[in-house]
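Final paragraph of the annual report: two paired records, presented back to back.
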Amino acid sequence: MALKEEKESIRKSIYDKLLEEGQSLRPEGDYGKIPNFKGSDIAAELLASTDEWKQSKTIFCSPDSAQIPVRFIALKDNKNLVMASPNLEHGYLFLEGSKLNGVEKEASTKEGAFKHCTKFFDFGIGSSFDMAIDMVVEGSVAVDRDGNRIGKGKGFADREIEDLFNKNLIDENTALATTIHPFQLIDYIPMESHDRKLNMIVSTEEIIRI
């Protein structure tokens, strides 16, 4: 089986299981998307209990629905939040938790982030940030215990992480995390040369550091 087909087979198996077991928050399932799973708030709370989170001042997070609780807790904890815009169409959004008292819930959604963001940053060459990123949180379709990850197949997470590395905003010691349902943790994921490994996986049941 070709690598692309193998990854698609893994995605389908995860989508099928989450839907069949009633663990997707989408009535028709998550096909073609990052799964929005039941218990995403529990996984986010577990992530927020870690030293890596507590020591972070600025969190970078994907715009996926399953990571809304991550973004909400970051803002409630008065952290700075950098959110990638959907499909990177508008680069990155910057939100200051300390200035969003009472509207953190709205600001943690994609629509609310656009409404409450302080400023935008461009994606790619020539763009600039003026702050450090202490933790990166990406959505995933599937991960294994070695930190290998599969997204929905568009490559946005890999591009985001590579961009942050290129801007020297993160390094090999930065926590690269994901929050998942236990069904999304599998034994093995095939990787390509451009794929970035995670070093932290948080499910509703455990914290895995790689």
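The closing record of the year follows.
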Amino acid sequence: MAGKLVRFMFLTGSLVAVTCWDSAEAGPGHTGPHRAGDKDVLEQMREMHRGHEHKHDFEAIDEMSPQSSLRLLKFMREIGLALPPMDSHRGHQLFMKRGCVVCHSVNGVGGDIAPSLNASDMPSPMNAFEFAARMWKGAPAMVVMQQEEFGKVVELSGQDLADLIAFVHDEKMQKTVKASDVPKKWRKRINN
């Protein structure tokens, strides 16, 4: 997987973000690289926060077995206390398949009806909540455009949204986007 993946965990009363990088580059105040597997989430969090002035209490998690901590993470995702893992590759596929590319462009590929979603223009570090808030603000116009362009509103699950947000913030993945990636059914709707 290319780019950064973000995981959130709810620990000792606070939401904690874990940003996983696939290169030597790391986020502000964090050391990299980090692995992206669920089994490594706790170790990633510890590693990332070792040099911070603020401290996190990992003692409660230390007492759990690896299986119990994985079950806890799965449960937190199911009830909305933890975001699903973000995958920019799946986000790229969704961007094309669901028709986001008809209105939005990345890497010069796509429509110009709506703002481009180039990762280079996105705030860094990534803030998934801010991006979702911007989508929410534009939702009424997007609903109208989707009904006009597709005859229906595009439905996205929480996982879909997480993956799209990862793609929109992954400059390395976006540099691989080509006009030939656009599904044939959408090509006639854009000028690439």
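The two ends are 27 Å apart (CA to CA). This concludes the annual technical report; the extension proposal builds directly on these records.
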